[in-house]
Write a structure and sequence with these properties.
- Chains A, B, C, D: Keywords: Cytoplasm, Gluconeogenesis, Glycolysis, Isomerase.
- Chains A, B, C, D: The active site is at residues 95, 143.
- Chains A, B, C, D: It is found in: Cytoplasm.
- 4 copies of one chain form a homotetramer.
- Chain A has 10 helices and 8 strands.
- With 226 residues, chain A is of the alpha/beta class.
- The first copy, chain A, has one domain (11-146, 176-224): Aldolase class I (TIM Barrel), CATH 3.20.20.70.
- In chain A, the strands form 2 sheets. In chain A, strands 3-4-5-6-7 form a 5-stranded parallel β-sheet.
- In chain A, β1, α1 and β2 form a beta-alpha-beta unit.
- In chain A, α1 packs parallel to α10 (213-224).
- The longest helix of chain A is centred in the N-terminal third of the chain and has 17 residues, at 21-37.
- Chain A is globular.
- The model of chain A has no long low-confidence stretch (mean pLDDT 94).
- Chain B binds chain C through residues 94, 99-103, 105-106, 109-110, 123-125, 127-128, 130-136, 172, and chain C through 94, 99-103, 105-106, 109-110, 123-125, 127-128, 130-136, 172.
Chain lengths: 226, 226, 226, 226
């Protein structure tokens, strides 16, 4: 499943609105909007619904987390081979609700790469983002944790965090794609994120809890094409 | 899915032999043997294959781990509601490869119970097993970690650990079911475990990596009926 | 250093008011009040000030945490032998700000016992306290985490949590001493805790941040002798 | 306490040979050798002995770990202010036996810097070292974990890991000092480490468990002046 930019990544977390049949419905809406607008939308379902969603939609599906192990005696883990076998395209890593040790991020990025999968590392400030970029993931998302889930977008509340991070990361790594996370709630937030030099957004509750997720996402995709 | 005793629990861990289509095959064999012998066999697939297996077999399917949260902003988690929605029967908790904080075991047992699911708490010594029994899970598994994956069964190598644990637990909790884990490899290990006062076994590599898992499991089920 | 009951345990946490010379001053006040009132007061300084405090006061000094290891290649750890060598009397375990895995609590209690030191395990609800009591620590502290640091005492706000916990624990363990933690702020909270069947209290900010810690502690000690 | 290069850092871990009075003796030997040879030797005692050692020797003393918090309600933690108050010069971070989350390393480096202390971040491979260098610590130590405690030095067994790491780090950060850890056992290992482009070594058991630590360290210091 090809990932292109601008990219809109929808993290379903483990919200009750995104479990079981509701998870599939939200993924199907994302697929429809992506096909209509031509903007790549990736969805990140919970682990239990992950395989079913990957079978059911023609857009990239990402895990919310991936452990740094090879297949083996790792009870309760999710490894790159689980994802590949289920046609999952890759994984978020180091989300603010699932922070990882530096050595685990390094190993998980390497393992996803080895099996041909996409890695998107979240980071919460300028220096962590710079550090994460040195691990050569496919993409980074900047998420100041104090804005996550607030409905206040980093691109609006603290545009300087975004521009500084883009500048810091670009000094170390010219190729990594940079997304803007934390508080992305409106189509306008998406537009601002792109204008600040990022290549897309990572959002969650604004989509999952929206009364009209299709209209919201459609506008977000359109506004990403600034 | 009713759980009765003697009970044979097969933890597939994240072995390469139990990912994707191989996972389904191992689960189907377990289902066949269970139906043939009348002994309940439960399977514990990795998270990504979990929902598919629960849809595909008529034996209890358990998660390998469950987080103690309600549905919500918990990226990378698996909660009781994920399991219920996917018709998964319950979960292992505190496996030696996924040890949990005491407060997390207490909360996860309570949450599984609240949504009507089965909890099986692993413990690695007499005092931890006694402590875990005070949390009132449905079942306990005794797994001295130094024997896990060794092919040496606790029921054979250290029968006194089993009898002491059964005695200690029974003083505190008359109702919890007690299984024997760690190193269970042969039908004879199963028989010994039952004779030592447990009501079943928890095993992993002996089944997953067997060249003839069906024959092995069939004999184990038969030997459990001592 | 003998520990007797009623017992008042002062957790200094890592508050700025209890670092370095201020730590020593707070410990000296506790020593004075203990000697004056005849009530045992134990102090729990941060790790760096721990040895100095243990050399400087004639009351029990406890660590805030202890790892479950033997001496060895455990960078950044504190083990029972460190405490014994420094004349520290024992340790808190599983404080709500330093929650431990069940297996670590079990092992740390056992290791402290083996070197002759005192263990005080914190637990946040009835079932965790019951479980912890099965590990046979010297003492337990009940601390509903939603009350910690609020200035609202569990003995006042939720007396039923205290009485239920005492009853549950006593069914499993007749000998463990039970303290009341979380929100203990006034001499009256101490009195209530004792009347509800506990043998002392564990408190922190009320003492550390008091403008007159000596008067507060003196009254608390007096009120503990109901 | 000024830190200059070449630098020999002695991590005492929590070996029985380095607890209490034995800890002080090992620190005193290090002080003597440092004064005699003019090479800076820093010692890293366990937390409980840390303050006493910092009062007793005229060489840099480092903590083995530092939490990323400000002073406050963090039971069982060690923060930068504890170290500063005790005249400790700084801290190791992310040692292989105390791995940290990326966000914790970033925050701890920043907090140590803010209070004027030295930070030495350990990393286990080329990409983690590059990432850590982006956090701008004072120094880095390269420690392939498969060599730690083996008596086989990375500078001897895998010189290419050292040269690659030096090259990778130098691309991103011209100023960070780079040390060589893992398996450093002999004066010759120290010499090789310097010749491969590092500015010193981090070692542990070879010194702590030596029958003649003074002679060993003296030769190591001399061999560091290649």
């Amino acid at each position: 499943m090809k990932i292109s930019y601008p990219l809109v990544v929808l993290n379903f977390k483990n919200y009750g609105e995104a479990i079981g049949s509701r998870c599939l419905k939200l993924a199907k809406i994302a697929e429809k909007v992506s096909l209509d607008t031509g903007v790549t939308v990736a969805v990140c379902p919970n682990f239990v619904d992950l395989e079913k969603i990957a079978r059911s939609v023609a857009i990239p599906v990402l895990a919310q987390h991936c452990d740094p192990y090879e297949p083996g005696a790792f009870t309760g883990s999710v490894v790159a081979e689980n994802l590949r076998e289920a046609k999952v395209s890759g994984s978020l890593l180091n989300h603010s609700e699932k922070r990882l040790k530096l050595s685990a991020i390094a190993a998980a990025v390497a393992r996803l790469k080895r099996v041909g999968l996409f890695s998107l590392v979240c980071a919460d400030d300028v220096s962590s983002a710079a550090a994460a970029s040195a691990l050569n993931p496919d993409a980074l998302a900047i998420e100041p944790p104090e804005l996550i889930g607030t409905g206040v977008s980093v691109s609006t509340a603290r545009p300087e965090v975004v521009t500084k991070t883009v500048a810091s990361v670009r000094k170390l790594n010219k190729e990594v794609h940079i997304l803007c996370g934390a508080g992305v709630s409106t189509p306008d937030d998406v537009k601002k994120a792109i204008l600040l030099g990022t290549e897309g957004v990572l959002l969650s509750s604004a989509y999952v809890k929206s009364r009209d997720p299709e209209t919201l996402l459609r506008k977000m995709c359109e506004f990403s094409l600034v």
